[in-house]
Specification:
Layout (H helix, E strand, L loop, with lengths): L2 H16 L12 E3 L4 E3 L1 H4 L6 E3 H15 L7 E2 H15 L9 H15 L6 E2 L8 H8 L6 E3 H19 L2
Antiparallel strand pairs: 1-2, 3-6, 4-5
Helix pairs in contact: 1-5, 4-5
Length: 171
């Protein structure tokens, strides 16, 4: 599979695994993806409530989300476990919408995502097979480069994403 497609698919699932994080919806978890970038619920990741998200907090949140999807606790996510998590996320995301993806679409997407992430093709995904997005997120959001994301930086990134989305949808 070409590297770009693999990275795109891995990114989509990892954002789900990292958590459903920069949104105003408490029930969505802390991080999710809605087709136009990651959103995170700041307070869910800022576990010590000091007003900043550190890479350690982001990594801990990522691991907790991975463990949540690892239903049998064996340290890996099977395709069935991923399907269960994806179905729950899709149901939550589309709960108040008339637009619901078909089972066929979901299963097709699931298969592509799973194959892209299962680097060694052993039928399971371990945390080491998922890319570490903390560095990438910090490079974009931590504008003062102090190795922590403030609430203000988080809000500014959210506004930039909205402005970018609006620009892309209108022109």
């Amino acid at each position: 599979m070409n590297k770009f497609l693999k990275l795109t698919l891995v990114s989509a699932l990892t954002l789900g695994v990292i958590g459903m994080a920069m949104s105003s919806s408490a029930t969505a978890g802390a991080m999710h993806k809605r087709g136009h970038g990651a959103h995170f619920e700041f307070e869910k990741i800022d576990t010590n409530s000091d007003g900043y998200i550190t890479k350690a907090e982001m990594s801990a949140h990522r691991m907790a989300r991975f463990e949540q999807k690892d239903a049998n606790g064996d340290g890996s996510i099977s395709q069935d476990e991923m399907k269960t998590a994806m179905e729950a996320r899709m149901a939550e995301r589309h709960a108040n919408s008339d637009r619901k993806p078909s089972v066929e679409q979901m299963e097709k997407r699931l298969g592509r995502m799973f194959r892209a992430m299962d680097e060694n093709s052993d039928g399971k995904i371990v945390i080491e097979e998922l890319p570490n997005f903390e560095d990438r997120m910090f490079a974009k959001v931590d504008t003062d480069k102090d190795n922590k994301i403030s609430k203000e930086e988080s809000e500014a990134a959210k506004k930039n994403r909205k402005k970018h989305k609006h620009k892309n949808n209108n022109g």
